[in-house]
Amino acid sequence: MKEPLNIDWSGLSFGYMTTDYNVRCSYKNGEWGEIETTSSELIPMHMAATCLHYGQEAFEGLKAFRGKDGKVRVFRMDENARRIRLSAEGIMMPPIPEEKFCEMVKLVVRLNERFIPPYGTGASLYIRPLQIGITAQVGVKPAKEYLFIIFVTPVGPYFKGGFATTPYVITRRYDRAAPLGTGTFKVGGNYAASLRASQEAHAAGYSAEFYLDAREKKYMDECGAANFFGIKNNTYVTPLSTSILPSITNKSLIQLAEDMGMTVERRHVPEEELATFEEAGACGTAAVISPIERIDDPENNRSYVISKDGKPGPVSTRLYNTLRGIQLGEIDDIHGWNTIVIE
Ligand code: PLP
Ligand code: COI
Questions:
Q1: How does pLDDT run across 7-49, given as a tens digit for each residue?
Q2: Which of 141, 144, 186, 218 is catalytic?
Q3: Per-residue pLDDT tens for 234-256?
Q4: Is 218 a catalytic residue?
Q5: Which of 55, 166, 173, 212 has the fewest CB atoms within 10 Å around its CB?
Q6: Within 6 Å (CB) of ligand 2, which residues are found?
């Protein structure tokens, strides 16, 4: 018998907590092995493993939700399966087969059922898949052996306050990814590249930093951990860029905006256009929709106030409620985004 949990579900932040099990799969001799289950949170690894030196690492982030009906739904896991395949291929790792990824997601959620936050707490079960190169070598070349792991941890909001407007800052001194670099892949190196800018943004009181396109420093790219969208004239506008992560949340919001009769534009978004948006937000699995109060560009002496009354705007609110409603099973899942993992 496990000890009963004593978790303040509604008070959770976006942090790590030990759960019961994680699931693993190894790649050796050119093939993926059987799925294994363990309670160990440690990875026995050689000090010369490629992931430690040359950043051969890719990861994902998705969530499971407990609905009012008691069922547990995982949101768009097939999209995450596809994206980690593209990330793996982007840094020369053999991709985990998409069916195996999905089987492992379902297994790890079921094994940790008692950690799935109850309905109504605003919390969810964050699912973190990762793949690392583990061959011991010092030559800069892809590993021959890999380890794929999925762990879970219950989480609350990524940005303090959840669905509330907060300030953001444009960073001109740092780039997260180059135009033809690894920005479209979810690989650890991109996040290492964002740490300095992100720490500086937090220290200055901002929720997060926005990067501009690295080539011209003219157009909005994305945050360190979320995409950007702006709303004006019944139009949903989001950057088109070769250095941003194709966000599954953004893709979903684009569909919901179209369902609501809005026009969608994916194109370059010049920084000055920020002055024209009625609403704007950062969106992602962890961030959900984080409405933007204002975006400062201190190095250019500019500030763009987006929310005049300090509150999330009506379109962002409707998008947020619809997305959450689908994830919690309260709104018809007409696009077939959820996988019911526990009935
Ligand atoms: N952009 C970056 C850099 C991210 O790390 C994330 C988080 O996964 C996102 C965007 C949002 O992507 P998604 O909506 O698929 O979680
Ligand atoms: C996510 O939104 O799932 C992310 O991975 C963002 C961040 C926690 C890295």
A1: 999 999 999 999 999 999 999 999 999 999 999 999 999 999 9
A2: 186
A3: 999 999 999 999 999 999 999 99
A4: no
A5: 173
A6: 61, 225, 284-286
